[in-house]
Amino acid sequence: QVQLVESGGGLVQAGGSLRLSCAGSGSIFSINAMGWYRQAPGKQRDLVATITSGGTTNYADSVKGRFTISRDNAKNTVYLQMNSLKPEDTAVYYCNAEVLHSRTLRLTDVWGQGTQVTVSS
Question: Are 119 and 14 in contact (CB under 8 A)?
């Protein structure tokens, strides 16, 4: 079994910063891409940022220049540093990872439970 656990969400004023963390645990042999997605009420889940095992990053246009994704492969952890937050960034943020399972050696798409980020104006 593989789990992703997010932390770091909360309430912040517009212009503020938050740092999200997502740690993987369980039967992990290795992790390929990791990423963050978000879902606002009544809307679909959208990509925020992704990072490959080699460190190549990709960002949604709406967060470029404000958010930074990074990872610690030794800790199976991905981070999202969010600066200059706007009310429209309010959403539940979900961590995602493409995990190579250590027992089955199968690639599995794993999601975290989500963490709420609320930005007040």
Answer: yes
Burial of 24 (0-12, 13-18, 19+ CB in 10 A): buried
Q: Do 22 and 78 touch, CB atoms closer than 8 A?
A: yes
Residues 6 or more apart whose Cβ sits within 8 Å of residue 34? 22, 50, 51, 71, 78, 95, 96, 97, 98
Strand ranges inside 14-106, DSSP E: 18-26, 28-39, 46-51, 57-59, 67-72, 77-82, 91-101
Paired sense of beta strands 67-72 and 77-82, if any? antiparallel
Q: What is the pLDDT of residues 16-73, one digit of tens each?
A: 999 999 999 999 999 999 999 999 999 999 999 999 999 999 999 999 999 999 999 9
Local confidence band at 119 (pLDDT 50, 70, 90 cut-offs)? very high
Contact assessment for residue 93 and residue 6, using Cβ atoms and an 8 Å cutoff: yes
